[in-house]
Amino acid sequence: MLERLNQALEHIESHLDQPIDVADLARVAVTSEYHFRRLFSALAGIPLSEYIRHRRLTVAGAEVLAGERTLLDVATRYGYGSAEAFARAFRALHGVGPGEARRTGATLRSRPRMSFRLIVEGNSSMRYRIVEKDEFRVAGKKARVPLVHEGVNPAIAEFIRGIGKETQGRIAALSDQDPAGIVSVSVLLDQSRAEGTELDYYHGVVTRAEVPEDLDTLAVPAGTWAVFENSGPFPQSLQYLWRDVFTQWFPSNPYESRPGPEILRVRPSEDGTRADAELWIPVARSATPVARD
Q1: Is it the case that residue 54 has pLDDT exceeding 80?
Q2: Which residues have CB under 8 Å from 87's CB, separation 6+?
C-alpha cells in the first residue's frame, strides 16, 4: 500500500504544472478517491489539496528567483488565472510577493517532497472486529461544529451542556442495539479532515425505534464497519486512536474507508481522566490485497 501511495506522490511531482485529478491519483494508489483523501491527510498531517498547492508554490518560487520567465508566465504555468491570484497565494506561503522576491532575492519557504515509509515498532497492537450491520438510524440532537484534532472540542462540549437532562434521558431510552447507549456521531463534510473544517455532530443513540419529532435523525444504510477498542487517558487516547486507524491499520489490512458517519462510544472513568471507547468506522473490502511493502 505504501508503495502505491508513493507512486501517487510521484504522479503529483510530474504534474505540478498540469491539472491534477484526484481520480487519477486514486487509480495509481488502487483505492477510492474518498479513501485516498482520508488516508493521505492522516499520513501527511495536511490535506491533499494543501500539499499540492504548497508543492506548486515551492517550485514556482524557484522559477520566480531564477528570472527566466515573466511572473505572469510562472503564474499561468502553475494554474493561476491571474497575476493577482498568484501573488496572493505566493505571499501566503512565502511571506513576500513574487515581484519583491525577484527584486530582492528574498529567502523563500519550501514544502519538501513527501514520501511515506513504514516504521515497524512491534510494541503495540490494535483491538478490532469487523461487523456487518443492517440499516439503522441515529437519533438525538445535532450541531454543526469545527473539527479539532487535539484536546477537548469546546463547541461540542458547549453543545452537550445545552441538552437538558430530560432530553438526554429520552434519547438514551431509544438505544436498542450496538453500539449501546449514548454515542458521538461525526459526519465529515470536508474529506480533507483539515482542522477547523465543519462537521455535523450528533449526540444520540443507534436505534430502529420510532423517533420523536423534536429529535434529529440520521438514516444510515446497511454496510460493513470496523470496530476499534481503546482504553487510556481522555481525550488524548481517543484522538490518537483516530490517527492510528488511518496511519497503521488501513495500510496493513485489506479494507478502505467509505463514506458514512463515524461513531464513538465512550465510557469515562469516575474522575473523567480515562475512558474506555469503541470507534466504529464504515469500511469496504479493498479491490486488491494489501501489498507487502
Answers
A1: yes
A2: 97, 98, 99
CB 228 within 8 A of CB 249: yes
How high does pLDDT run on average in the chain?
Answer: 87
d(CA 25, CA 22): 5
Distances (CA, A) of 106 to 56, 65, 97, 101: 18, 8, 10, 5
Taking a C-beta distance cutoff of 8 angstroms, is the pair 22, 50 a contact? no
For residues 144 and 202, is the Cβ–Cβ distance under 8 A?
no
Give the residue from 79, 89, 83, 61 showing the smallest Cα distance to 19: 79
pLDDT at 51 over 70: yes
DSSP state of 60: H
Asked whether the beta carbons of 34 and 259 are under 8 A apart, the reply is: yes
Counting Cα atoms < 13 Å in the Cβ hemisphere of 168 gives 10
Q: What angle do CA 146, 192, 246 make, to 5 degrees?
A: 105
Range 172-180 average pLDDT:
94
Q: How far is CA 48 from CA 34, 36, 93, 94, 113, in A?
A: 11, 9, 16, 19, 13
* 262 in Cβ contact with 201 (< 8 Å): no
